[in-house]
Write a structure and sequence with these properties.
single chain; 63 residues; mainly alpha; 1 helix
């Protein structure tokens, strides 16, 4: 009887740890997706600034 209770306790602990791990993994995926979106937006903003600055400067004349 004690062996059965020990097995049930170990299985329950393993399931709880697995649930916590999956929850943490889900949050890591969410945080990673938000960070990726932020990087894409910042890259677009920076590239538009570079293009606007390039268009604002007059072209160099070749001799």
């Amino acid at each position: 009887m004690r062996t059965l209770l020990a097995v049930v306790g170990v299985v329950a602990a393993a399931l709880v740890l697995l649930g916590l791990l999956l929850e943490a993994l889900r949050w890591l995926i969410v945080v990673g997706a938000v960070a990726l979106l932020a990087v894409v937006v910042l890259a677009l903003v920076k590239s538009r600034r570079v293009v606007a600055r390039h268009r604002a400067t007059p072209p160099e004349r070749h001799r």
